[in-house]
Amino acid sequence: MTVPDEPTDSTARTESNPSADQFTVTPYAVEGEVDYEKLLEQFGADRLTDGQVARFPDHPLLRRRTFYAGRDVDRYLEAAESGAPHAIVTGRGPSGPMHLGHVLPLYLAKRFQEETGATVSIPVSDDEKFLAKEQSFAAIGEHTRENLRDVLAVGFDPEKTRIVVDTADADVIYPIAVRLAKHLTPATVEAVYGEQDTVGLQFYPAVQATHLLLPQLVDGRQPTLVPIAVDQDPHVRVCRDIAAKEALPVDKPGALLGRFLPSLEGPGKMSSSGDAPSIELTADPDTVAETIRTHAYTGGRATLEDHRERGGDPTVDVPFQYLRFFFEPDDAVLERIATEYRAGDLLSGELKEIAIDRITEFLDAHQRRRAELGSLETELEPYRLTDGERRLALERAGVSSLET
Ligand code: TRP
Description:
By secondary structure, the protein is an alpha/beta fold. The protein has helices spanning 36-43, 50-55, 60-63, 73-82, 100-116, 126-132, 137-154, 170-181, 186-193, 199-219, 233-246, 285-295, 304-310, 318-327, 331-343, 348-371, 376-380, 387-396; strands at residues 24-26, 29-31, 46-47, 67-71, 87-89, 119-124, 161-165, 224-229, 254-258, 262-263, 266-269.
């Protein structure tokens, strides 16, 4: 199987790149150039095999190894193949407007739901972002509302999808998190996440562990897969540990680990909070075009002549990588673009315009669905946990409170 033009991990450790060792990846800090292979060693996760990729629903994010690794994916695949219940958890930390990188796991989850009937659970961690960012509760609340509209615009099946917001669904999240927190020590939290500034952030891993177990607490024991950017893997590891210790009626959740969509300015994490510009889901076509034309890092040559003669390098070209990650689903088209670029027939400016077209098309469809939504309360209602589901989850977790 060919994986066309996977980005070179400019990061691979070589003698000429001695700094490659120096990177940090935790949910609260991604620094330095990420060495994706080395991370797997550090985290104890496994590269996906061709066989595993072939068993997942076909999707460019997997076919091209943007999601490149995992833990415990076989149990999930078996359930998906045999029609047994299986769940996906993919969440959102509402620290600001959502940009392109944030929706990739959501669209992947939607595909899984369509193909194999996965239930999808989407927790929104407003508590986490309040604690982790210098922002007021009101500001985080506003991001939460806007982000929820983007989540709803993806178009999940309300029968098979649940959306929870930590502070709004605290009646169910909090008691379960408390139970899980009982055996989560500060030493574990520090070892996994590094030192935290507040006890709030020290507690939060218990909340995210709750998210990852929630589908099983609501619907019964079943393989659960968490497709996330690799920086979120520590949450999965902590959850797996606690789930085992607590003797809850749940299986350990598995993970599907993804690379970061490159920043427009070059390899590294696409950041909504850093300096590099990012493309928000609400960006209009002119903004998309302008942002890519002025900011996208290319693999083209310095002069036209040189480019025609020696060709460009798609592996470092950000517009090409965007097409490769998600926006050009057709492998043959993608391969042709790569070939023409390498041959010098396609110029960087032309490649940028292709990316602009595809991204604009994608955003147009997303934005149309977003604009058609009614009030948030009304739209969200069919996705919220029912009273019965809340009761069941608390019961299964052994934390039913007095009033139920
Ligand atoms: N912590 C995630 C972030 O910062 C958001 C999140 C919350 C999440 N719960 C989750 C992601 C569960 C995946 C699964 O982006």
